Amino acid sequence: MARAPLLQLSDISLTFGGDPVFDGLSLAVQEGDRIALVGRNGSGKSTLMKVMAGIVEADRGLRATAPGTRVGYMEQDPDLSGFATLGDYASAGLAPGEEYRVAMAAEGLGFDPARDTAKASGGERRRAALARLMAEAPELMLLDEPTNHLDIAAIEWLERQLAETRSAYVLISHDRAVLRNLTRGTLWIDRGEVRRQDRGFQDFESWRDKVWEDEDLARHKLDQKIKVEAKWAVEGISARRKRNMGRVRALETMRDERRNQIRRQGTAAFAMESGPVSGKRVILAKGLTKGFGDRAIVRNLDLTVQRGDRLAIVGPNGAGKTTLVKLLLGQLDPDQGSVTLGTNLEVAVLDQTRSTLDPEMTLWDALASDPDLKAGRSDQVMVRGAPKHVVAYLKDFLFQEAQARAPIKSLSGGEKARLLLARIMAKPSNLLVLDEPTNDLDIETLDLLQEVLGDYDGTVLLVSHDRDFLDRVATLTIAMEGDGRVTPYAGGWTDMMAQRGGEPLGLRTTAVEPSPPVSRPAERAVPAAAPRKSGLSFTEKHRLDMLPAEIDRLAAEIAKLSTLLADPDLFVREPVKFRKATEMMTDRQAALDAAEEEWLLLAEKAEG
Q1: Which of 273, 325, 407, 515 has the fewest C-beta atoms under 10 angstroms from its C-beta?
Q2: How many angstroms from the chain centroid is the CA of residue 279?
């Protein structure tokens, strides 16, 4: 007998006071589904996910979940009020004794659970929200851009967790590598319609292009048919008016159909104009050394950046990537060594915090008030040396005319990124600094940005954790290990990893990922807590102390389930209860085996 879907949406319609976001939407998420949710910025991906989570209520339609199904949603801007620390928030939904799950997630994601919520950055808050979801492990996980603000080590940790989880999940991400590695199905939102394909993201672009090709062909055929019928209506209708009124009505129906066809949203009109040609040598660093207290950022770096280079800087969060950029731009003095900048440099910067955008300012004012974009009239901006109307320029970046006077705080993350790109692309430059440019951008816009950077005559400094984007853009990659070691490699991310023999970048200073479990001991015994040794991290010591109680709890639960399943009539009398008890027995047994193996490994490590 087929099982009910974990989540079912039926005939969902939703509007926000204007055109419908969705109309007549139906979809289902089954056990084991691993789905990519894709679509242009503003197409409604996050809105659909909130409808799936039950956070946004549809105007019409039904949302249903299977009995006993927990649906977890990773909030983009979590409310941490009432919680003293990030760990308190992340562990709020866990049973007593399971707080270790948050500690393990915090190590993998790279944040401190003891961090005061009032002092936590937006990225730390989002990582805590992700840790909360991963620790709770609901039957269905809804993840909205989980890789934003994660470094590559954390992204790879998350990939491993999602690859191994038994939970179903729906995933929104701009990271092609993550989507390719993890998904087995695709939901595509396009002009209010949600299409599904039971193949992963690796097949999405060919599927999308085929859909658009078929649409173009159907539209062309309809246009030709309307042309023929319109000619007949003019030349041949008078003699056969009564007999052919049905044909006239069919013509009007075709015209209505053509008028109602929703054209695809175009791509943003990205273009960049280089400023005056810089010198052949853009940046020369010799013996570059910088640290803060006992923490080394870079030691004895020799580096030459030539005109036209695409230099990528990668490394764990906290390794000092932004500090290195400031050193290379001459914005920060080194402790030792020197940096020499080339001649005629004109720098444009896209920062990951979007700090140059005033949330209360309108999109119009964000462009018109920029002193570098001043034109002769208040409704125009200078775009690469020529005046252009503010609204026309905003339309080049896919903004609607009505948005021109809207406040920036009303924009989505992707729209804010496009607005910043509009500002920096209007200015002539020959050195472009991009700090996490891929955050919040949709796949099509990323493709276009990649093409623009390929045609750009100037030099690019790029900080990114997007492995696919690095491979597509970078010609030189600098790896920062987090302890002052800074090593240049030719090529992008994949080239760098090949030259390193697959060796991962240096570990974060805040956490060490747990080692994999060793083989299971021959005899089961509930161990006593091992003494604390200096060979363990703080989290590992805490975990070692907690494991005996966890093993006791799991053993007790297994004993209760064994007693329940010993009833020979349970299967006939209560088949659902029998099935759930059997599944719980399997889960608890696997958890007990893993806990014992983990205890043995940590105990051996503690003993040196």
Answers
A1: 515
A2: 37
Residue whose pair of structure tokens reads 């994999």 in the numeric block: 516
Contact at 8 Å (CB) between 453 and 460? Answer: yes
To which residue do tokens 């292009």 refer? 209
* Beta strands, E only, 145-215: 168-172, 185-190, 193-197
Secondary structure class of 524 (helix, strand, coil): coil
Contact 439, 469 (CB under 8 A): no
Q: What is the pLDDT of residues 119-132, one digit of tens each?
A: 988 888 999 999 99
C-alpha 422/C-alpha 398 separation (Å) is 10
Q: What is the pTM for the complete model shown?
A: 0.69
Looking at domain 281-499, does it have CATH number 3.40.50.300? yes
Q: Tell me which DSSP letter residue 374 carries.
A: B
- Cα(423)–Cα(357) distance, integer angstroms: 10
The whole-angstrom separation of Cα 9 and Cα 29 is 9
Whole-number Å distance between alpha carbons of 302 and 561: 64
Angle at 73 between CA 67 and CA 77, to 5 degrees: 155
- CA 172 to each of CA 39, 46, 57, 65, 563: distance values in angstroms, whole numbers, following the listed order: 9, 8, 20, 21, 43
Q: Do 282 and 345 contact (CB within 8 A), yes or no?
A: yes
Q: Do domains 33-38+45-50+72-206 and 538-606 have the same CATH topology?
A: no
- Please, which residues bridge with residue 35 across strands? 170, 185
How far apart, in whole angstroms, are the C-alpha atoms of residue 132 and residue 114?
14
Q: Where are the domains of the chain?
A: 33-38+45-50+72-206, 216-260, 281-499, 538-606
The CATH number of the domain covering residues in 538-606: 1.10.287
What is the C-alpha separation between 252 and 170, in angstroms, rounded? 42
Q: Are the CB atoms for 538 and 510 separated by under 8 Å? A: no
Q: Burial of 607 by CB count in 10 Å (0-12 exposed, 13-18 middle, 19+ buried)?
A: exposed
Please indicate whether residue 488 or residue 254 has the higher confidence score (pLDDT): 488
In sequence order, what are the beta bridge partners of 171? 36, 143
Q: Which of 90, 87, 25, 84 is nearest to 59 (CA)?
A: 25
Does residue 136 register a pLDDT over 80?
yes
Report the top-level CATH class of 33-38+45-50+72-206.
alpha beta
C-alpha distances out from residue 233 to 239, 241, 433, Å: 11, 10, 60
Residue 1, judged by CB atoms within 10 A of its CB (0-12, 13-18, 19+), counts as exposed
| Residue 43 DSSP code | S
CA-only gyration radius of the chain, Å? 29
Rounded Cα–Cα distance for residues 502 and 247 (Å): 68
d(CA 152, CA 480): 12
Which residue is it, tokens 């030259």? Answer: 499
Whether the CB-CB separation of 269 and 451 falls below 8 Å is answered with: no
Res 387: pLDDT: 86
Flag whether pLDDT at 511 surpasses 60.
no
- Could you tell me which residues come within 8 angstroms of residue 425 by beta carbon, excluding any fewer than 6 positions away? 270, 271, 272, 384, 452
